Amino acid sequence: MIRENGRATREPYNAAVTAILIVEDDDTVRETLALHLRAEGYEVRQAKDGQTGLDAARAETADLIVLDVMLPGLDGLTVCRILRKESAVPIILLTARGTETDKIIGLETGADDYVVKPFSLGELLARVRAGLRRGSASRGAPTELVAADLRLDLSARRVFLAEREVSLAPREFDLLAALMRDQGAVLSRDLLLARVWGDDYPGDPRTVDVHVRWLRQKLEADPSEPQRITTVRGVGYRFEG
Fold first, then answer.
1. Are residues 45 and 94 in the same domain?
2. Are 148 and 121 found together in one domain?
3. The Cα angle at residue 136 between residues 130 and 139, in degrees rounded to 5
4. Which of 59, 81, 118, 123 has the most Cβ atoms closer than 10 angstroms to its Cβ?
């Protein structure tokens, strides 16, 4: 269930043309979310099960998808994996589970964010706005970022290391891009959190540490002695160009 703690007053992101797909089998949760998102000015589409949600995402372009994990038929993680192979649309997972392992599994399927029930409407709306900003930025990205044998194709959201493609989750890609855009500069956790997750993201700054660890595992020859993404103790991280 949703704990209502008051309407958010911030203006919605590009609400006039922004479509959000809610895939949730709980009628009360789905209708309540739809009601409040519409009140914020968003266009809302709904689906009650995984297959219907997948079909809806393929049939009509959505700017962001709010996707429950526990769905009849195709579960939310499966839907997320399928969609991530076909699209870079921002996906926020909803789940009653809340362990660190569950969060990691959800993010590694390609989700951009993870919200545990019960949650406040204010929190969800903040994450929706942040997700939409990231999606818009990625669609408008210029060309590519290059550092030695590492290349990011920003428009296609693909990463190549020594011409071998590396699979990154959407948030990992955004974090790497943020670091590479300021090669040689030390970026604090709070700054990275604002650039990648959004200014109004209510999560823990240590989320950055988890994603840096995942990037090192995929990009560093020896993750225990990183050469590309180094730690500046007490400050944050630096990408060594």
1. yes
2. no
3. 140
4. 123
H/E segment holding residue 215: helix 207-219
Buried b (16+ CB within 10 A) or exposed e, 58-95: eeeebbbbbbbbbbeebebbbbbebbbeeebbbbbbbb
If pLDDT is split at 50, 70 and 90, which confidence band does 202 have? Answer: low
- Do 21 and 73 belong to one domain? yes
Residues 135 and 60 in one domain: yes
Contact 219, 239 (CB under 8 A): no
Q: Which DSSP letter does residue 84 get?
A: H
Q: Is the pLDDT of residue 133 over 90?
A: no
- Return the structure tokens found at 50: 């995984």
4 pLDDT band, cuts 50/70/90, is very low
State CA 24 to chain mean position distance. 18
Q: What is the pLDDT averaged over residues 179-199? A: 85
Same domain, 166 and 124: no
pLDDT at position 54, please? 93
Out of 139, 160, 176, a domain closes at 139
Closest-CA residue to 143 (of 89, 193, 181): 181
